[in-house]
Each structure stands twice: as C-alpha cells, then as structure tokens.
C-alpha cells in the first residue's frame, strides 16, 4: 500500500474515532448504574417508584400451610382476622409497607388433591379464599401491600401418613405439578384462576391494589438437580428446565388473568446474577423463561441473604452488601426477600443491612420473620431499626396510590 493511501486511511480512522468518542460522550451522560443495569432500581407501582420495606409473616400461629388453608389431619386452620389486623396496625405504625405471606407451602392444607401422592388438584377448601379476602381487606385498611408465595421447595419432599403429626398425608410429593403438564394445568384451572377471580370489596384478588404480586415458589434452587445445590430431602427433584417451565407457565397465567406482578424467591444471588462474585448465572431472566411462555417472565427479582453467603468477598460472595445491583448486572428491580431480622452472622447490624441494601440499589427488603419462627429473629428484634429506616426514607417507603388520578394498577413491566 502506498504511503499516501496509508495516510488517508490513518486520517479517516482518526476522524471516525473522534466522531465515535463525541457520540459516546453525548449519549452516555446518564449515571453509570442506569447504563449498566438499564433499569430503575426502585419498583414502580401505581404512579410512583417505591422501596418496599417489609416483613415476612410465615405461618400465623404456627400453622405451616394452615394460615389460609385447613390441614385435615388436625383440623388446623390458624388464620385470625383480629390478629392480622393488630399485626398490620403494628407494622404500619413503624412505616412498614409490605409483607410476604406463604400460601400452599408443601401442599399439606391446600390446594385439594384427588390423591395423596401425585394427585391432581381438584380445588380449594372452604376456608381458603375467605381468609385470603379478609387479609387483603385488612391490608387495604392499613396501607400494607402483600406478596403471596404460592409454593415452597418442600413440595417435593416425602409425604406423610394419615397419622403423621409432623407433616400430614398431603404434605410433599407434588412434583407432578412441576413435571406433568396436565397436572400443572389442573392446578392453574382449579386453584390459581379461581383464586385470582375471587371477589374482594369491589375488586377480585387478582385485581386488588393491595396485592402487590405473586411469588411462584420459594427457593426452588434446592430441588433442582443441575445446580449442584440439591437438598437431600427432595425425593422428587426436578431439572432446571422443568422448573423454568413451571415458573413461566404459572407466571403467564397470572399475567393473563390479573393486573399484578410475578417473582421467584431465589435462594441466593448466586442463581440470579451473571456477574456477582462466584455466581452461576441468572437462571430467572427473560432469556431463561420466555422460551416456555412468552408472557411468563418475571416483573421483579427477589433474592435471599443470610450470613453464610458473605463468602471471602474476593472470589465469591452472594451478599447484597458486597454486590450492588450494578455489580450483579440485575436488569429488573430486585428485592432482598429474606434476611435475618436480628442480623445474625451477617457482620453488621439490622440498620447496617437496611441501609446497605438501600444504598446498593435494591428495590426492597423483607426481614425474616415477624413471629420468630427460627433463630433469625422476630419483629421485636427489628421494629426499632425498621422504624428509623422508614422515617429516614419516607419519600420512597410511604407508598400511596391515592395520587394516581386514574387509579390504574399495572405491573412495572408492561408485557
């Protein structure tokens, strides 16, 4: 190549580089966080964007799977309207705006099945929907927003027997809902859709503004064979593809028959991020779920955090205090759906957790748990810190839909 040609190419390349640099400068004036994640880190609901500061309220009066349902072996149904009203009033006085409440757990109380193991869903017991409606109306009274968790990973544990006092004969062995398309559709038709259509004070459950959304399953990673995290109690483990189809098809049904959002309670950031330290990858993103149902993707992510996830902070850590939303490349608003109310083993205080989660760009934080069902603390451990946090961030935590002139409640991501 002649020198004159080389100079022409060099000058042309320099001009293109300068033009490219100018365009980059003009189009990249937004903050780095927004560019890296392409998502508003707070969760849009109604006419605002909010930080959902909340509490897990599993299982009222010790009724695992019997909060709303009835466990027939024991005639156990533990929902109490008076206790729920008092709890919501107490939470609201501290500025709490949301709760996460489990429904079916392992299937011991609801839905109803035509057989103990591998049975198909026939409906819901008489207590279930009226109790849900009562809780939702009380939530509306106290300006609390509920995320209902449909299933727990224990749904594939071994079932009990008719005289079992530890579980009950319908607990567990419901992996067929995940793996069998006919049984899964039966659950959708006979339990999920009737629940969404049930009337509540001028709305339905599926359109009520105080139902923020639905969690398809809690911590599904523990029962998935190809994620190297299988719980030994899972007698009906499933593949990742089977679980993704289950999540997508239920999500699609909810999106088609409600105005509410959908999420999954991922056990750790390890499985909900492509770039967090030591992460496996985001197995719940749109690319993972949309092949199974076009409208079956999630509206927001939800991760859980406990002290064991701190890692070494160099090669691996699933802590939201180490990994910001930007660090984790999260492309949807993300709520930290469980973390210890007493901050045990986390290396910080509850105030440190709340502020760290907020400052790292997450869209919410739900302490575990209200009634202290294990060693991770209770509301008495967390009330003071949560009150101070909510007061300091009232602009983001004092959720109000009254400012919406049209009162249209839509998911944050329009499908």
Number of domains: 1
Return the CATH topology. TIM Barrel
Rounded average pLDDT: 88
CATH architecture: Alpha-Beta Barrel
Strand order of the largest sheet: 3-4-7-10-11-12-13-14
Number of DSSP helical runs: 11
Distance between the termini: 55 Å
Strand content: 15-25%
Taken in chain order, the helices and strands follow as HHEEEHEEEHEHHEEEHEHEEHEHH
Low-confidence stretches: 1-38, 407-415
Name of the CATH superfamily: Glycosidases
DSSP E strands, number: 14
CA radius of gyration is 23 Å
Give the CA-based shape: globular
> What is the CATH class designation?
Alpha Beta
Explained architecture:
This protein is α/β, with parallel strands linked by helices and 415 residues long. It has a single domain, classed as Glycosidases (TIM Barrel), CATH 3.20.20. Helices cover 31% and strands 15% of the residues. It contains eleven helices and 14 strands. The strands form four sheets. Strands 3-4-7-10-11-12-13-14 form an eight-stranded parallel β-barrel, surrounded by four helices. Strands 1-2 form a two-stranded antiparallel sheet. A two-stranded antiparallel sheet has the order 5-6. α3 packs parallel to α4 and α6 packs parallel to α7 (240-257). Mean pLDDT is 88; it is low at 1-38 and 407-415.
């Amino acid at each position: 190549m002649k020198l004159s040609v080389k100079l022409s190419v060099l000058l042309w390349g320099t001009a293109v580089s300068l033009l490219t640099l100018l365009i980059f400068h003009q189009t990249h004036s937004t903050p780095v966080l927004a560019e890296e994640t392409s998502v508003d880190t707070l969760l849009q609901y109604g006419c605002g964007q909010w930080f959902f500061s909340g509490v897990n309220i599993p299982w009222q009066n010790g009724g695992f799977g019997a909060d709303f349902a009835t466990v027939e072996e024991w005639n156990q149904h533990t929902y109490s309207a008076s206790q729920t009203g008092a709890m919501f009033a107490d939470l609201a006085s501290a500025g709490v705006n949301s709760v996460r409440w489990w429904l079916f757990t392992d299937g011991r109380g609801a839905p109803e099945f035509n057989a103990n193991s591998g049975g198909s869903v026939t409906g819901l017991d008489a207590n279930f929907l009226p109790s849900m409606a009562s809780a939702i109306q009380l939530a509306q009274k106290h300006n609390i927003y509920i995320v209902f968790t449909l299933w727990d990973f224990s749904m594939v544990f071994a079932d009990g027997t008719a005289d079992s006092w530890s579980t009950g004969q319908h607990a567990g062995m419901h992996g067929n809902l995940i793996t069998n398309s006919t049984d899964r559709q039966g659950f959708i038709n006979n339990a999920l859709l009737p629940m969404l259509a049930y009337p509540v004070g001028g709305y339905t459950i599926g359109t009520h503004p105080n139902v923020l959304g639905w969690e398809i399953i809690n911590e599904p990673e523990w029962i998935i064979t190809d994620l190297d995290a299988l719980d030994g109690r899972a007698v009906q483990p499933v593949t990742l593809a089977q679980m993704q189809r289950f999540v997508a098809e239920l999500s699609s049904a909810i999106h088609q028959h409600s105005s509410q959002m959908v999420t999954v309670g991922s056990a750790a950031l390890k499985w909900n991020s492509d770039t967090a330290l030591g992460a496996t990858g985001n197995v719940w993103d749109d690319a993972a779920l949309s092949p199974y149902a076009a409208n079956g993707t999630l509206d927001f992510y939800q991760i859980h955090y406990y002290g064991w996830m701190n890692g070494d902070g160099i090669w691996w850590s699933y802590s939201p205090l180490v990994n910001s939303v930007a660090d984790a490349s999260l492309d949807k608003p993300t709520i930290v759906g469980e973390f210890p109310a007493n901050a045990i083993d986390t290396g910080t205080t509850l105030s440190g957790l709340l502020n760290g989660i907020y400052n790292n760009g997450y869209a919410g934080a739900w302490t575990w748990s209200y009634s202290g069902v294990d060693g991770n603390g209770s509301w008495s451990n967390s009330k003071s810190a949560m009150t101070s946090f909510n007061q300091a961030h009232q602009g983001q935590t004092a959720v109000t839909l009254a400012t919406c002139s049209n009162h249209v409640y839509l998911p944050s991501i329009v499908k």
